[in-house]
Amino acid sequence: MMTGLAKLRDVMKEHHVDAYIIPTNDPHQSEYIAECYERRRFISGFTGSAGTAVVTQGQALLWTDGRYFLQATQELDQNWTLMKDRLPETPSIEQWCAANLSKGQAVAIDPSVVSMATYERYVSVLQPAGIHILNLDHNLVDAVWEGRPPAPTSQIIVQPDKYAGQSVQSKIADVRKAMAALDVGAHVVAALDEVVWLLNVRGADVTYNPVVISYAVVTRSSVYFYVNHAKVTPEVHEHLKANGVEVRPYGQIFADLSELSKTERVWVDPGTSVAVFVAVQESSRVKQTSSITMAKALKNTTELDGARSCHIRDAAALIQYLAWLEQECVSDRVGSLTECTGGDRLDSYRAAQSDFMGLSFSNISGSGPNGAIIHYHPTPQKCSPIDPHAMYLIDSGGQYRDGTTDVTRTVHNGKPTSHEIECYTRVLKGHVALGLVVFPDNKINGYQIDALARGALWEVGLDYAHGTGHGVGSFLNVHEGPHGISFRPNPTSFSAGMLVTNEPGYYEEGKFGIRIENIMAVVPAKPKLAALSGMKFLQFEHITLVPYCSRLIDVSLLENREIDFINRYHMECFDKVAPFLKDDPAALHWLQRETKPIAR
Q1: Contact (Cβ atoms closer than 8 angstroms) between residue 588 and residue 581
Q2: Which terminus of the chain, N or C, has fewer Cβ atoms within 10 Å?
Q3: How, if at all, do strands 201-202 and 106-109 pair?
Q4: Is 503:469 a contact under the CB 8 Å cutoff?
């Protein structure tokens, strides 16, 4: 029987395609996508959330980043070559194509799933090499994907102002102010989280992400919501109508943009698909980052209060799980407990919390060597027992009506080695370093402070291959831009109101993984001499409230101010979370023990 890869190569021949690029993306350039868009996963077998496949008649290659090198090695079969993206020795996709294809050959893409920014990067390298780029009107993988899942049809819900903190009309007015400043007559909103944020609605079209597959277009006098009508309930219809939003068929946006751009300048984000750009007349295109990207990242007071509140409830759930897990391990009742069944238990504790809407991503529950797979996701068919004598990493999160959580803790319920303790403590030192930093307002970005999280590891020749932090939505996507903390340059400066994770780690292949992750809010700071400079300063407020693992901390490696930070943080954990554990004495006892002050 022919494989999907073999069938794809036959289809490529029929269309005179020499290389076909298959990104992870959906038509909205989402990081996490509905099953019907999982084309790269189908053709390659690689299940990670990031990566791009390139198929020629003789080769099949998969580019992915450092989070997934080990996972890709395990999941790709002998037909595939792993390209370790962003390493100095690894060529980019366009560089590889230029070096391995001949002049006159053709690279093809589906323009609906490739952003204009990416397309322009391809063109800049391939065109000088004499290689053609074909924008096909259909996706070649779909032609060979038997049993492709249908498009999702989940119903939309309203996100009330008491959670959103800003009305739809107020948000639209802000967008129109930005449009006026840029002298445009229309603003295309293509990113799914931006659409639902603007309209104060949520959906369930993408697992773990409360979004709906849709577009929006804001003009000077109208707002259009392009979506499958079947998803719009009477309540949502009334909500949209009351805010002057007209619902139109999902696919109509292309014809509407074509017509609109005959008379108006149209604002389109560079990350929007080539298909949307092409629908807008070239002379009318204004290529600029969406005005909603930053507006969504700067949480209002209601959203920040919601984030703090949901993190307390979420902490109670994780503490209940960690206390229960420890008891299972020390009582030698682990038995058939696996990474999956353990994660299921955690899910049940989260589901019991008020305003719980679901998980924010699939549990990363890794025992021993599986913890070294940075984005390891166990399945019932492929998971390991939780070893009570090994390191255990649990990275998980929840979606609540008032916020989104993402927290990682690494624990050991036996007797950790001195090496494991030192590695954990050095990761913790980097985590604390970000918690202590104070910096000027609107001048410092995540690239400039990333080294703080790595310094204690670098001192002994260790590091980790992923970024240190990402933005987080408000009952929205767990990964959100434009800001972040990483060794990769990012020009977006921190501003008060942003949420960002703090998650340094360390991983030894075949042995263990360590990651410690909190969500932090960017808040004003008041250094004692700031009045002399007249400058404004910022700092990070940790809103995740789960203790660090006491038996993995080597206090002798900590400075006094690090010890003070940990003790203050643990006091806050106890004071805020203990009231939510009054009906679980075992969890409350665990919290009391883990938050005892540490000292040399």
Answers
A1: yes
A2: N
A3: unpaired
A4: yes
Give the pLDDT confidence score for residue 67 in this predicted structure. Answer: 86
Express each pLDDT in 38-65 by its tens digit.
999 999 999 998 999 999 999 999 999 9
The string of pLDDT tens digits covering residues 538-584 is: 999 999 999 999 999 999 999 999 999 999 999 999 999 999 999 99
Query: How many Cα atoms occupy the beta-carbon half-sphere of 542 within 13 Å?
Result: 28
Q: Which residues of 355-382 are buried (b: 16+ CB within 10 A; e: fewer)?
A: bbbebbbbbbbbbbbbbbbbbbbbeeee
DSSP track, 492-511: PBP-TT-EEEE--EEEETTT
Distance CA 413, CA 402 (A): 33
Per the structure block, which two tokens stand in for 535? 């400058």
Contact 530, 505 (CB under 8 A): no
The closest of 213, 224, 211, 218 to 171, measured between CA atoms, is 218
- Residues whose CB is less than 8 angstroms from the CB of residue 529 and which lie 6 or more positions away in sequence, other chains included: none
Asked whether the beta carbons of 596 and 550 are under 8 A apart, the reply is yes
Beta bridge partners of 525: 537
Residue 339 · residue 386 · CB < 8 Å: yes
**Could you tell me the two tokens for 554?**
């080597």
In the block, residue with structure tokens 């400058």: 535
Q: Which SS3 state, helix, strand or coil, does residue 63 take?
A: strand
Q: Pick from 358, 332, 369: which is nearest to 71 by CA? A: 369
Cα–Cα distances in Å, from 558 out to 458, 548, 555, 563, 598?
16, 14, 5, 6, 10
Mean pLDDT of the chain: 96
Return the percentage of the chain with pLDDT > 90, whole number: 96
pTM of the complete model = 0.95
List, for the chain, all residue ranges whose pLDDT scores fall below the cut of 70: 1-2, 332-335
Nearest-angstrom CA–CA distance, 280 and 70 = 42
The answer to whether 190 touches 137, Cβ cutoff 8 Å, is no
d(CA 61, CA 53): 6
Q: How far apart are CA 339 and CA 185, in angstroms?
A: 53
**What is the model's pLDDT at position 176?**
98
Residues in the chain: 600
Residues contacting residue 404 through CB under 8 Å, at least 6 positions apart: 307, 310, 360, 397, 398, 472, 473, 474, 475, 476, 477, 478
Query: Tens of pLDDT along 158-198?
Result: 999 999 999 999 999 999 999 999 999 999 999 999 999 99
What are the Cα distances from residue 384, in Å, to 68, 342, 343, 404? 19, 11, 12, 28
Question: Which two three-digit tokens encode residue 421?
Answer: 């303790």
105's tokens: 């050959």
